[in-house]
């Protein structure tokens, strides 16, 4: 089960992890984009993490909606609308939930990932953040179907996201700025898949 | 780091303050949203022409705010799209009651952030916004398997020509149709002979050894489609012009407007030399007529060296609108 404090720990943890990984994400982005993914994500999640200190939130969904709006307004690039949409949609099924269990979380995760797909129109294999999120969602659902706890479902999702991230390395990008490189985009791990894996790894550590 | 900076995180805001200070009679800035507007606010009854994108492409876009071109421009971080709030603020600031034409370059970030802004404006009850996305870069294969062609040099021509049409009082639908037509008539191809360095990282965007060139670059310091040995100016001109001519299907006798654009780090000496090669190639080999030309740094990638060629299939109306007066920090003639 995860309450508002746990979700605030998730965002704070993600902000810390993304700040620590900013140079690495920048290097990955530099190979196939322009190198600012790390600084953009660190800035956006840093601002989102600060929300909990500045404001009292009445509910999980109110908090996560504000996180989504903050990401949209501060990250920029394609990642801002995509991660922002993820949290705005993720918040929906959490309405009226004070302590989210595995079923509420499953609904939210589906809503968030569907939002990213709707906005970015990505498919598996395009070499985007969806290549980490799609297997994570599947792994979460499989674990959930077997009656696993939220902690175990999130662990399975985080591991699948990491594997999905690694699997982007040989792919030729078909979406976003990396697609302009054509065959030259192959041989590099996708920065968006990497930040998505960080987000799920932090979720596994803070929300279980 | 070899740049003149205070704090890398403040570079865009500080640059906009300087732009406005240098052109106090022309433009104003909304510092909170990083939106540059025409001094005196929107023109009542005129379609507002708005553009926006990442910073680092100066004079695009803020430098094209003024009479005969843009009513407002919003400026993202360096090479990063503005966020939806900025597009919303720019559209609101440019609205004179006749709606707003939003000119975007086809980059995923710009398109997604602008889409969210248009959704927000619609929820809030206006103004009416028509969006036109430029996609003129022939280096990118236009297929369902890519994000589509990038918007590059033709964006300058679209903003100039549609800016003139809006100034004449054309309505929103007519301005949008004209912008799409100009985009469809224009194609570009670029080359880099050195990378650029982002203020935030202090590192070159890619490593390009001397004597090599990246052919088919965009405007974000990203590598091109192919790396080749750097040839003579004549050979580079051919590598840029031929794919554009072929893609446009230009025939002998066609009139064209040419933009020979510097990427920011190439002196006018070289750009003029390149223009001579491009013009000779167009006149003698292809047989098209250069009716208007523009040579200089107009859509740049910080201090990247290199250039791009944009060809626009012209007609009398396009030439007339091209010649119409324009008074902006970055482009000024006829007034």
Automatic annotation (TrEMBL), chain B:
InterPro entries registered for this protein in UniProt: DhaK_1, DhaK_dom, Dihydroxyacetone_Kinase
GO BP annotations listed: glycerol catabolic process
One function term, GO molecular function aspect: glycerone kinase activity
Origin superkingdom: Bacteria
GO cellular component: cytosol
Stored Pfam families: Dak1
Annotated keywords: Kinase, Transferase
Domain DhaK, residue spans: 7-333
Name of the protein in question: Dihydroxyacetone kinase DhaK subunit
């Amino acid at each position: 089960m995860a309450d508002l404090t746990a979700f605030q720990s998730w965002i704070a943890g993600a902000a810390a992890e993304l700040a620590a990984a900013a140079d690495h994400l920048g290097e990955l982005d530099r190979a196939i984009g322009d190198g600012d993914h790390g600084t953009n994500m660190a800035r956006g999640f840093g601002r989102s993490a600060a929300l909990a200190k500045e404001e009292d939130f009445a509910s999980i969904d109110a908090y996560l909606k504000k996180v989504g709006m903050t990401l949209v307004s501060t990250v920029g690039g394609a990642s801002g609308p995509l991660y922002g949409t993820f949290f705005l949609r993720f918040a929906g099924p959490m309405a009226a939930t004070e302590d989210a269990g595995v079923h509420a979380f499953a609904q939210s995760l589906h809503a968030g990932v569907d939002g990213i797909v709707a906005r970015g129109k990505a498919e598996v294999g395009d070499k985007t953040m969806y290549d980490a999120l799609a297997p994570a969602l599947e792994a979460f659902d499989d674990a959930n179907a077997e009656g696993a706890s939220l902690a175990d479902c999130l662990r399975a999702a985080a591991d699948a996201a990491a594997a999905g991230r690694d699997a982007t390395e040989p792919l030729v990008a078909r979406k976003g700025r990396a697609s302009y490189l054509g065959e030259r985009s192959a041989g590099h791990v996708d920065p968006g898949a990497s930040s998505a894996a960080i987000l799920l790894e932090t979720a596994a550590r803070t929300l279980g | 780091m070899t740049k003149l900076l205070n704090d890398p995180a403040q570079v865009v805001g500080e640059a906009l303050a300087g732009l406005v200070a240098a052109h106090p009679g022309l433009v104003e800035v909304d510092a909170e949203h990083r939106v540059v507007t025409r001094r005196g606010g929107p023109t009542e009854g005129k379609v507002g022409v708005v553009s926006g994108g990442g910073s680092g492409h100066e004079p695009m876009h803020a430098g094209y705010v003024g009479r005969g071109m843009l009513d407002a421009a919003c400026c993202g971080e360096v090479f990063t799209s503005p966020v939806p709030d900025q597009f919303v603020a720019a559209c609101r600031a440019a609205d004179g009651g006749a709606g707003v034409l939003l000119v975007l370059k086809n980059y995923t970030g710009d398109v997604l952030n602008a889409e969210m802004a248009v959704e927000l404006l619609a929820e809030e009850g206006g103004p009416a916004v028509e969006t036109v996305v430029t996609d003129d870069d022939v280096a990118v294969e236009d297929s369902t398997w890519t994000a589509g062609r990038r918007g590059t040099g033709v964006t300058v021509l679209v903003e100039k020509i549609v800016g003139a049409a809006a100034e004449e009082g054309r309505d929103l639908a007519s301005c949008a149709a004209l912008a799409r037509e100009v985009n469809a008539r224009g194609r570009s191809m670029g080359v880099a002979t050195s990378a650029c360095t982002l203020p935030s990282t202090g590192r070159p965007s890619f490593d390009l050894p001397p004597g090599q060139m990246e052919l088919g670059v965009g405007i974000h310091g990203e590598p091109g489609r192919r790396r080749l040995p750097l040839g003579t100016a004549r050979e580079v001109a051919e590598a840029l012009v031929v794919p554009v001519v072929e893609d446009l299907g230009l025939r002998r006798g066609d009139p064209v407007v040419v933009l020979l654009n510097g990427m920011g780090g190439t002196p006018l000496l070289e750009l003029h030399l390149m223009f001579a090669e491009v013009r000779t190639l167009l006149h003698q080999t292809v047989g098209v007529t250069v009716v208007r030309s523009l040579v200089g740094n107009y859509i740049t990638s910080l201090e990247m060296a290199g250039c791009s060629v944009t060809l626009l299939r012209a007609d009398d109306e396009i030439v007339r609108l091209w010649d119409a007066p324009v008074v902006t920090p970055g482009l000024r003639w006829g007034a």
